[in-house]
Automatic annotation (TrEMBL):
It comes from the Bacteria. Keywords: Membrane, Transmembrane, Transmembrane helix. InterPro entries: Aerotolerance_reg_N (IPR024163), Class_I_gatase-like (IPR029062), Double_TM_dom (IPR011933), DUF4159 (IPR025297). The keyword Glycosyltransferase does not apply. This is RNA-binding protein. PANTHER family: BLL2463 PROTEIN.
């Protein structure tokens, strides 16, 4: 019967089923049912002399019920297991387990961990040491060998990383360890993706003559990645990739998100049959595209499907101005023709309707452009000049091109980066001794530093700058003779740029070269944040701190402790544990560092040819199920039915009083039988003590105030010190002597022991699981009270329109709780007079109200001077940081100052804590006190 998915831990116990016929014979007879007779004595005596009655046969259904109950007990003692898993062949001297934990392993990481746990459990059962290594960890990570329990602990602590795997160095380290453990079994749990140097890596690892090889690979390679997201003229152009080998067509949806994580646009990318690349365009308005912070593929759950966007992905609005009217018959001679052609691919262009600068410049500034380009504009009218200068100093970028008008206009020191000589300089003309000048190498301090100089470009006419000591610092591009081609300078927060040539191809062939397009693109990128995110000092790469990271499962998260600054401008940087994918910089400007590059591909891993025997295993959870508990529960249910049947047959339900003693005896017999059936020969189970009994007795021996362990050491330390300070104050001022503060894990610890739980909300702490929140909800329903403290009174405070991160986290937690209607503590609430008379409830901060459950009788003030019911509110919320005000150090001195610094505010905060504790422990006793005179008056009547 190998097809039956059932096994037994102690199959010898099944011989007990042979006793069922004996049990049937013992159970088939029952004594006759006693009958009650109404006294006359003679009638009873007359019936005594009737013929002797034989025992009455037990009903068939009761016998069957008891046989089934006995059979279930025998089966339970045999410890049956449904769908038992097959033990994997982990023979040999040790087990070497190498696990891919790169970005591609994130979607099914739990399944991989479950598979590895089975391997380690089998190795531990055989007493084998375990070598455990991950291919996306630091090179110096410990790999063992470990015992089975230590290996399980390290496995459960591991997590997928948002970086590619690096099998070569890891496999080499494992091979070094295996050289000292000959005949080891090797288990490889890969992510299905090929990496650089895989052939050499597998050759190194598997060249140690393993006893056998276990290999687990994904059944299907479903990973899809996003390789590019370019902001183009008509929308965001997206490119997605998938692994080859899938002949069927497919589609994936991409979503665009703003910096707050809100989805604001969608697009569908379709894969043609057999194709590995899909393209699509997210067609949305220009203004909406500039709000994109990240783009992600739906349903992937891994870092390769997410791209973060920086300022280079945001299109700028650029205004174009010229004093020359367009000539449709000769467009190549128009001042703005080449500028327009160069900027169209990466900027949104706008031009005024009027050629009069006095009207055109204000009209252009109303559109709030990031950059304005002036092609041969001479003198600017005064009224427009002031507005243009204000826009420039507030952060705008003004780019000017020379020409005959500018050369004759004279110097305007505020709207020109350098002083100019009057007139033009001609090179290579019939009356000139000089030849047209080529462009030299770009200076290191300018934005064109990493561009190659255009060798084919020459300049035949230019406007010259006056030689000054700071001319070199303002020069972004030079001609071969050292004269400036492009100069730039700062004006307030803005940038001012001058091309010393005309925008047409008459003075130079630069406007018709590819370098012209790239130079304008660089200036457009500077027009937003002036290059603070990527430009270093004196041409050196800028060191950008981690700002927002992409996690392995594709979420945008704060930087991890392992993340290090990124050297922007140092060439193409790989994605590593020190530089994971994400945004680097600050709020003033960021640089996107994405996992997949434009030319990235997803190649499936090809398994090498091996001489050692290979066993293929699959990623799966342990689906075996122990049936012992279910069988015991079924036996208990049948025993309860049997007890009810015996009581019914004995007439207990019709004559309960007469049979009370018999019922007690029957129940005792049933319990005795249950104990006998469930008894096992293992004497270790004779002790009825359970884990946690000692802690439970200790928890209820004294009243203790609890606080939630958030996982943030600083927050938890303040919470414990705060509860300790409140406890000391309670002992000094009241008859209550609470025990030591109790830190509780809401996901594991029993909460019913504590009348009050203080919960400091910290956005950096992990979001509680649904099960943990459900336990808190049950605690509140059973009479407990949770005091939520967001500690953000001076950030936003509860109820603010723009909530702080702590308040947002509190809202997420409360959305899963059954929260009653809330209101600030009214002036006549019991909390205001439970011990001290308090008009408000300050903490380390003051100003936030203390929110409690709203009174249902709040509107009925007449005859009810205290506005509460008899119950105690299950929830309190504040932003005043109670624990921060209560916290004391080992010398009983306050740990944190109050804001504002007022000694009495700390006293009021401690009094507020006393009132809250008295309210928790005594209920609304003062609410009843107000009715005492009325009750006494009625009793007197």
């Amino acid at each position: 019967m190998s097809w039956l998915p059932l096994s037994f831990g102690f199959p010898a116990v099944l011989w007990g089923l042979l006793a069922l016929p004996v049990i049937w014979w013992l159970l088939r007879l029952t004594p006759p049912k006693p009958q009650a007779e109404i006294f006359p004595p003679l009638k009873i005596l007359a019936r005594v002399f009737k013929k002797e009655e034989t025992p009455h046969q037990s009903p068939w259904w009761l016998t069957l019920l008891r046989l089934l109950m006995a059979g279930l007990v025998v089966l339970a003692l045999a410890e049956p297991v449904f769908n038992p898993r097959e033990k994997l062949p982990t023979g040999g001297a040790a087990l070497a387990l190498v696990v891919d934990n790169g970005w591609a392993s994130a979607p099914d990481w739990k399944r991989r961990v479950a598979t590895a746990e089975r391997l380690i459990a089998d190795a531990g059962a055989s007493g084998q040491p375990v070598v455990l290594a991950f291919t996306a960890e630091k090179p110096n990570a410990e790999i063992g060998p470990f015992d089975a329990q230590a290996a399980l602990d390290r496995l459960r602590a591991a997590e997928p990383r948002p970086v590619p795997t690096d099998r070569g160095p890891v496999y080499a380290r494992v091979a070094t360890v295996l050289a000292t453990l000959p005949g080891t079994s090797i288990a490889i749990l890969d992510d299905g993706l090929a990496g650089a140097g895989d052939e050499q890596a597998f050759s190194t690892l598997l060249g140690q003559n393993p006893a056998n090889v276990l290999w687990a690979s994904p059944e299907r390679l479903d990973a899809k990645g996003l390789t590019s997201a370019e902001n183009e003229m008509d929308g965001f152009a997206l490119t997605a990739i998938r692994a080859p080998g899938d002949p069927a067509p497919g589609a994936v949806t991409a979503g665009a998100f703003d910096d707050k994580g809100r989805r604001i646009a969608d697009a569908t990318l379709a894969f043609a049959p057999g194709e590995t690349v899909a393209s699509g365009t997210m067609t949305v308005p220009f203004e909406l595209r500039n709000d994109f912070a990240s783009i992600a593929l739906d349903g992937q759950g891994q870092a390769g499907a997410v791209r973060v966007l920086d300022d280079s992905s945001k299109r700028r609005r650029v205004g174009l101005l010229s004093q020359s009217d367009a000539d449709d018959s000769q467009p190549l001679l128009a001042p703005l023709y080449y500028i327009r052609r160069a900027l169209e691919p990466f900027a949104d262009l706008s031009e005024p309707t009027s050629s009069d600068l006095a009207e055109a410049i204000p009209q252009m500034l109303e559109q709030k452009p990031a950059m304005i380009v002036m092609a041969d504009v001479g003198t600017i009218p005064p009224q427009a000049r002031e507005k243009l200068l204000t826009w420039l100093k507030e952060g705008g970028t003004l780019v000017r091109f020379a020409g005959s008008r500018l050369a004759a206009a004279g110097n305007d020191e505020e709207l020109l980066p350098v002083r100019l000589r009057l007139g033009e300089r001609s090179l290579g003309g019939a009356l000139s001794w000089t030849a047209p000048q080529p462009v030299s190498d770009f200076p290191n301090a300018g934005p064109f530093a990493d561009l190659s100089p255009p060798n084919e470009v020459t300049v035949s006419k230019q406007v010259l700058a006056e030689p000054t000591p700071d001319l070199a610092a303002s020069t972004w591009a030079n001609l071969a003779d050292g004269t400036p081609l492009v100069t730039g300078a700062r004006r307030g927060k803005g940038t001012l740029v001058l091309f010393h040539i005309a925008p047409q191809a008459t003075w130079s062939n630069l406007p018709i070269s590819g370098s012209f397009v790239e130079m304008l693109r660089r200036i457009v990128q500077l027009s937003r944040n002036q290059g603070t995110a990527t430009t270093g000092i004196e041409g050196k790469p800028a060191s950008l701190a981690p700002y927002r990271m992409i996690s392995a499962d594709g979420r945008i998260v704060p930087p991890t402790p392992d993340a290090r600054p990124l050297l922007a401008g140092a060439g193409a940087l790989p994605v590593t544990l020190e530089n994971p994918p994400g945004l680097y910089g600050s709020e003033e400007g960021v640089l996107a560092h994405n996992l997949l590059k434009t030319d990235s591909t997803l190649s499936p891993l090809v398994r090498p040819q091996l001489s050692a025997p290979v066993t293929e295993i699959r990623y799966a959870f342990d689906e075996s199920r122990d049936l012992k508990g279910s069988l015991v529960a079924a036996a208990l249910a049948l025993m309860a039915l049997d007890t009810l049947a015996v009581l019914w047959m004995g007439g207990t339900f019709s004559r309960r009083g007469a049979r009370r003693g018999r019922t007690a005896g029957t129940a005792a017999a049933v319990l005795l039988c249950l104990g006998a059936l469930m008894a096992q020969p293992d004497l270790a189970h004779a002790d009825d003590a359970k884990p946690g009994d000692v802690e439970a007795v200790e928890a209820i021996s004294k009243t203790r105030v609890a606080y939630v362990l958030t996982g943030e050491s600083a927050v938890d330390a303040i919470s414990r010190a705060g509860i300790a300070g409140l406890t000391k104050f309670l002992i000094e001022k009241t008859a209550l002597e609470p025990g030591e503060p109790a830190g509780v894990d809401i996901a594991k610890d029993e909460l019913a022991f504590y009348p009050l739980i203080y919960w400091p909300i910290d956005p950096a702490a992990a979001m509680p699981s649904e099960a943990a929140i459900a336990r808190v909800d049950a605690y509140m329903k059973q009479g407990g009270t949770v005091l939520f403290d967001t500690r953000d009174q001076f950030a936003n405070g509860i109820g603010a329109d723009a909530a702080s991160p702590a308040t947002e986290r509190l809202r997420d937690i409360l959305s899963s709780l059954n929260v009653p209607p809330l209101e600030p503590v009214p002036a006549d609430h019991v909390l205001t007079k439970a011990f001290f008379i308090l008009p408000e409830f300050p903490g380390r901060f003051n100003g936030s109200p203390l929110w409690v459950e709203a009174s249902l009788e709040a509107s009925n003030a007449e005859g009810r001077p205290v506005r509460t019911g008899d119950g105690v509110t299950p929830i309190m919320i504040t932003a005043n940081d109670f624990a921060g005000a209560w916290a004391i150090d080992e010398n009983d001195d306050p740990m944190l100052p109050t804001v504002p610094s007022d000694p009495m505010q700390r006293v009021y905060a401690l009094r507020a804590g006393v009132n809250i504790m008295m309210y928790m422990l005594t209920g609304n006793y003062k609410s009843d006190q107000v009715h005492v005179p009325v009750l006494l008056e009625r009793l007197g009547q």
